[in-house]
Amino acid sequence: MERQAIRTFNIPAEATLEVLGGKWKLLILCHLNCGPGPKRTSELKKAIPEITQKVLTQQLRELEEDGIIIRTVYNEVPPKVVYELSELGLSLKSILDQLDEWGEQYIHQREWKSSCSECSQNA
């Protein structure tokens, strides 16, 4: 699954959707954005229980290929692998924060509940 080296986009938002589009990538990024420090794959899987392990791994690889996240492997037994936003990924922080704030207001307006206590503490 190799990405094209040169692409032409009709509008800049199309490039954004190319990188962040789909159901899972934005959720992964929001979880990496909220809470302290890098996250292990198991932490992300626990935070997004509906995602399969295969899809989570695939989405993490694509985000790494696009330079949005950094994957760090520690030389331990068993190996420890963590993910965090890269410098480019951190440039999305204000957008991710705004999406979180809007979602929080929407949930409140609809009188629904959110199970993300970690994110609402950081808002």
TrEMBL record:
GO terms for molecular function: DNA binding. Gene3D superfamilies: Winged helix-like DNA-binding domain superfamily/Winged helix DNA-binding domain. Residues 11-111 form the HTH hxlR-type domain. Keywords: DNA-binding, Transcription, Transcription regulation. Transmembrane segments: none annotated. It comes from the Bacteria. InterPro entries: HTH_HxlR (IPR002577), WH-like_DNA-bd_sf (IPR036388), WH_DNA-bd_sf (IPR036390). This is Transcriptional regulator. It comes from Paenibacillus elgii.
